């Protein structure tokens, strides 16, 4: 590459071919050169060093770009939602790069040293797991990778509710079935979600019911059920950090006599019986091959009339978070999103009568936008509590997920199942009205 040629000039044909002239993202390179957007600029992608190119050369596609972003050799400056939306909407599946431009880009990458040195992946990247996929040991390692990154970090992102699942934004003038504007606090929206789950499970109908909360997180759902509906709750998690803080929160709230937090796998609960079961944001870690075992296990814990509320992210047709994807490598190792139709079928096969399915995807988009705002609003502290790479991962994955919920690529559903008795009795209310 000659001294008079800028990096932007060499790579502009590649970027134009991939994104088209309508892209609103500005690209700036470490030599100070830049590729200007075709219209109004929504933000800037800063390529800070040749290591960014090396990541892309050695791991082409999503994983290489993720490594560059997590390592800090690529930055996104500006409204991350607008930047990601622009990149998504202008990228062309059938883009074709001319042979001459491609060879020129490859030659420039070679001259810059991007082809000769393979950079190591950032330390935040999950390493390959040992054991069978979704075995207890491998699940424990995957859960630890995602959840044991620091309770204080999660408190900063999630806010005082410490609830890591879709909230429900219901305003004072809302009819109870739609999203509300920004006047509803995140804490109130999370409490509204917990309350909806409690009412669907019938906790308001009979105080003192015994509830199992599978994947209890930091205990927020268990505490709500105990304090508002006088439920006796067992919460289980396989994250040591979560269990430690959940127990402390329960004690500080004076709920120790009603709430028990166990560091335990749901598959270790045989022989116990509960009146109702909530599973909120945990099913994504179960996997398609274990779904039948999961529902059979929970079914065996319930008597006739017992209810299960399964609250989980879904994807049309289902999707597996592979090790070649950003989400699979950095965020949810071994995670799987199961089509809601398959969830309903699996619950029915396990002996549940499915009585209600509610979609909340717009609410999750709002929830994620609030989490991103919390993270960006206290960025330096977030980095200090975890690492620069970890904070970058959470910013990117939450922003991208919000867009997925907004455009329907991702969904989230609450599926309510009931165990009928021999006569078919399930003890359900006649309409949804009692749930609000």
Automatic annotation (TrEMBL):
Keywords, sorted A to Z: Lipid metabolism, Methyltransferase, S-adenosyl-L-methionine, Transferase
What the entry lists under Gene3D superfamilies is as follows: Vaccinia Virus protein VP39 (3.40.50.150)
CDD domains according to UniProt: AdoMet_MTases (cd02440)
A GO molecular function held by the record = methyltransferase activity
The UniProt entry, under InterPro entries, shows: CFA/CMAS, CMAS, SAM-dependent_MTases_sf
Q: A Pfam family in this protein?
A: CMAS
One of this protein's GO BP terms?
Answer: methylation
In this chain, the stretch annotated as Disordered covers 112-140
Q: What family is this?
A: Belongs to the CFA/CMAS family.
Protein name as catalogued: SAM-dependent methyltransferase
The root-end lineage is: Bacteria, Bacillati, Actinomycetota, Actinomycetes, Mycobacteriales
